[in-house]
Amino acid sequence: MPTGLVNPTGAAAGTGAASVVARPALFALLSPTPAGGVALVSAPAGSGKTVLIRSWIEDAGLSNRVAWVSIDRGERDAQRFWLSNHSCS
Q1: Cα angle 16, 14, 57; round to 5
Q2: Which of 21, 10, 3 is closest to 62 using CA atoms?
Q3: Taking the domains of the chain in order of start, what are their residue ranges?
Q4: Contact call for residues 88 and 66 (beta carbons, < 8 A)
């Protein structure tokens, strides 16, 4: 398992802000993700995806068991996507 968050874009994906609104209903949707599974979060820019995932990781105590892969809108290379995922393991 990865020892931290990995973000191929180079930006750090550390913990969220100190004053983030709790989102228990959204956390509940993410929590059934099986060990070794993948959770896909897709929403418009600025909707709070990164804050949600960072706060869920912190709340669930998963900071040492999570890999982070960012995908650009126009990216269509499946091989590159899976190689990025594989490099996180």
Answers
A1: 65
A2: 3
A3: 24-87
A4: no
- Please tell me whether residue 82 adopts helix, strand or coil conformation: helix
Write the pLDDT tens digit of every residue in 1-60: 333 444 444 444 444 455 778 889 999 998 877 777 778 888 898 999 999 999 999 998
Q: What is the DSSP string of 11-71?
A: -------TTPPP-HHHHHHHTTPPTT--------TTSSHHHHHHHHHHHHT-TTS------
pTM for this prediction: 0.62
Q: CA of 86: how far to CAs of 1, 8, 11, 69, 80, in Å?
A: 11, 12, 19, 10, 10
